[in-house]
Amino acid sequence: MKYLSYSCLTALIGVATDTSVQARDLGEGAVNGSTSRALQNSEHHYELWSGIGRLNLPSRQSCSAVLLDTRNRQGRATGPAYLLTSGHCVFFQFGSARTHLPVQANITFHYFYDTPQRHRRYAVRTARWSSLVGTDLAVLEVDATLASLIQAGISPLKLAPRQTYESHDVLNVGAPSGFTERGLRLSVCAEQTAGTFIDHPGVFPLSTRNRCDLHPGSSGSPMLNRRTNEITGIVSQVATYRNTPEPPDCEHSPSCQAARFNYSYSANFLSYCFIDGVFTSNGAGCSLEPVELTVTEPWKLESYVHGTQNADGQVVLPTWNFRFTLAARFYRYKTVRNARDCKVPDHYSAVISAEDAYINTEIGSQSGAHALCIIGVDSGQQSLTRATLNNVFTRAVYLSPVPVASVQARSR
After folding, report:
1. What are phi and psi of 272, to 5 degrees?
2. Which long-range contacts (CB under 8 A, 24 or more apart) does 164-169 make?
3. Backbone angles phi, psi at 391, to 5 degrees
4. Where exactly are the structural domains of the chain?
5. What is the largest CA-CA distance in the chain?
6. Residue range 34-277, CATH number
7. Superkingdom, according to UniProt (predicted)?
8. Domain range 291-400, CATH class
9. What distance in Å separates the CA atoms of residue 291 and residue 85, rounded to the nearest whole number?
10. How far apart are CA 172 and CA 407, in angstroms?
C-alpha cells in the first residue's frame, strides 16, 4: 500500500505540473552523442520511464518495448495494455505484415538495475500487428489491462502527435544487453530524417536516423522528445560501427557512413488505430492489413545504378527490374524522388494484376535518389485512402550519372 500511495501521489503531481515537466530537459544536460548511462531509480527519479521494459522472446533473444498511453479523452484507461516495439523482434520476414499473430513472450517493467525487487513481469500473448512493409513496427497486447498497470505504478507513454522531419533533440531509453548493470539505459542525441536513399541493408526509406549510444537489445526501444517525453520513433537497427574509428575514405563512402547510424521509424499514425482504448487494425484511418510481398531473388537487387550508352551513342536509362509476388490480387505503384510521397495517393498507376508481377519501367533521368512505392489492392475499385497507404512497400536506389570514361570510350 505504501508503494501504491507513492505512485498515486507522483501521478497527481505530474498532472498538476504538466507544463513545468514539459519545459525541463529530460536529458539532464547531457551532451548529444555522449556515452549512455544506467538509470538508478531507488529514489523514484525515473518513474516516468517505468513503462519501458525488456521484451523476452522464445528465441532467447531480447528487445526493448514501451507501454503505450491509450487512455481516452476523459483520461480513463478502458482497454487492454499495449506495447510498441520493432516488427523484426516479433516476425522477421521482409515485405510482410501480420495481424492477430500468436506470440509467447513477456515484458519486464520497472526494469532498473538498482531496484530488482520492483521488477514486474507480464505475459504477452498476441501481436495485434507486426510489419516489415516499409517500416519496422509491432503492436503487442499484454495479458493485463492498462488500468491495472497504471495502478501498479507503471507509466505509459504517449505517441508524438506528428512526425518531425527537421533535426531535433531526442533521448533513448532502452534495455540493451551486455552490461553489468542489467536495466534501462539513457542516451541522448539529435534525430533527423534519413532521406530517401539509405545504403544500409534492411532499412526502408521512411526511417529516421541518429547517433545515440545504442547497443544490441535496444531494438524496439523508444526515441523520445527530450522535452515532452513523447514517442517520436521506435529503434529498428543499431549502428554496426558507431564506436569504431572510421577507416580511410569513409566520409566518401555512403555504405560506410550509413553503418554508423541507428535507424528508427515513426509510429505517430498508430494513434488512429486506438478507439476507446482498444486497438482496431481495420478502423477508419488505420487499416493495418496483412501484407505478403516477397521479393524475387533479393540478392540481385542493386543499390546503385547508372545509365549506359548504346552503339549509337544514345544514353540508355536503367530500369527497376523488380520482380515480386504478392498475396493481393492486384497492385498499384509509382516512382518518386522523395519516399515521403509514397504516402500521398496522387499519381499511382491503374490496378495491375499481381500474377507474374514485374516492374521494369525506367528509373528516371535525373541523378540522385529514386523510390519505388507498391501497394497491394483487392479490386480495381479500391481507392487509396490514408488508411490503405499505411501498407505501402518502398524500395530505393541511387542513380549516378553516366560515367565519363564510358561516354568517352563509346564516342571514339
Report:
1. -75, -10
2. 164/232, 165/192, 165/193, 165/340, 166/192, 167/191, 167/192, 168/192, 168/225, 168/226, 168/232, 169/27, 169/32, 169/226, 169/227
3. -110, 30
4. 34-277, 291-400
5. 88
6. 2.40.10.120
7. Bacteria
8. mainly beta
9. 19
10. 49
Collapsing DSSP to helix, strand or coil, 255 comes out as: helix
| Grid cell at residue 313 | 551513342
528487445: which residue's cell? 63
Amino acid identity of residue 221, one-letter, is S
Residues 164-197 pLDDT 10s? 888 999 999 999 998 999 999 999 999 999 999 9
Name residues of the chain where pLDDT drops below 50.
1-22, 405-412
What is the model's pLDDT at position 259? 87
**What is the pLDDT at residue 403?**
58
Residue 62 grid coordinates: 531480447
Rounded Cα–Cα distance for residues 76 and 151 (Å): 12
For the entire predicted model, the pTM comes to 0.88
Cell 563512402 -> residue? 253
350, three cell numbers: 491503374
**H helical segments located in 183-337:** 254-258
Nearest to 101 by CA among 141, 68, 132, 54: 141
The 10s digit of each residue's pLDDT in 213-270 is: 999 999 999 999 999 999 999 999 999 776 677 788 887 787 888 889 999 999 999 9
d(CA 370, CA 398): 6
Q: How far apart are the first and last CA of the chain?
A: 88
